[in-house]
Fold this protein.
Amino acid sequence: MIVSKSDKKKIIKEIKIFGTKYKISEINFLEKEKGTAINYGETWVCHEKININKVAKGFDHKLATLLHEIFEVINEKLELELEHSNITRFETAVFAVLKENPEFVKLFLK
Ligand SMILES: [Zn+2]
């Protein structure tokens, strides 16, 4: 397997969402039953934990998964009751906009 440079980049260890720090871990998820989709991320809002599946291919996939889990936290904390498919749509859309606009992303840095 060829490992690109971006695959060696590490995801951050924690993220603050609305003042709460969530610990981020990269773990191997238990295999699900055959025929079910693989979970690339999971969020335990009550335990302030976000897990990213190590099998996620490449850094961008992990980053997109983390973004997805952030939307999961926002959805639960704000009781938005978004359907999961819409959380996934937000993940795809916001990830694309952020990736296509590095100059915009830089504006958030001091
Ligand atoms: Zn999800």
Summary: Residues 10-29+36-106 form a domain with the Zincin-like fold (CATH 3.30.2010). The first helix runs from residue 59 to 77. Residues 68, 72, 84, 87 surround zinc ion (CB under 6 Å). The chain has one domain: 10-29+36-106.
